[in-house]
Amino acid sequence: MRFRADTPDRLRLTLLSALVVLGFTTAQADEAAIALGPGLLFSKHYYGAFLQYYHDAEVARGRKGFFELTAGGWPGPADATIIAASGGLRETFGDHGYARLSLGVGYLDHTTEHLGTHGQGVIQLGVGREFGGYNAGFCLVHVSNGDYVFHTGKPNDGENFLTFQLGRPF
Question: Got the DSSP string for 66-83?
């Protein structure tokens, strides 16, 4: 039996599951974060909630990068739950500022009127500041099946969220 979109049960279960997973793996994580925010464009009637796990990694030519796992979703008529894995770059500026860009792939629990495939691309662009043992910032999250590039013929309005993110490095 499937959870219905008109209740917040699916989102609560997803976030609780991700917290449990993060609780078992935080000793190896570089940062655990939560990101919450309203939808934009086709997603304007939704509110997204995502748990994120970052692991620092060095990328080409000694640049700071990271691997990221994300779990979350959005309730509503075109609700969905997503799990995604990404890789990205992190640049610092000033004394405590940073910018992040990540690209990855994700899996939706079911297709929606906006996202016609289970497989999705995930792009995240964020800026933030380190303070007192925490990282806080804003992140633009875009979820899409890439139909404009790959021509799958499936719905691809995409889902977009502007989130406030609060993270705790370990």
Answer: EEEEEEEEE-STT-EEEE
What domain range includes position 22?
9-169
Structural domains in the chain (count): 1
| Count of beta carbons in the 10 Å neighbourhood of residue 64 | 15
* CATH number of the CATH domain containing 90: 2.40.160.20
Judged by DSSP in three states, 11 sits in helix
Instruction: Tell me if 150 is assigned to some domain.
Output: yes
| CA atoms of 92 and 73, how far apart (whole Å) | 29
Q: pTM (2 decimals)?
A: 0.77
* Tens of each residue's pLDDT in the chain, 170 residues: 344 444 455 555 555 555 544 444 434 448 899 999 998 887 788 889 999 999 888 776 777 888 999 999 888 777 888 999 999 998 889 889 999 999 999 998 888 777 788 888 899 999 999 988 899 999 999 988 776 666 666 667 788 899 999 999 88
H helices within 32-165, ranges in order? 147-150
Structure tokens at 154: 């499936």
- Whether 112 maps to a domain, the answer reads yes
Short-list 139, 168, 129, CA closest to 26: 168
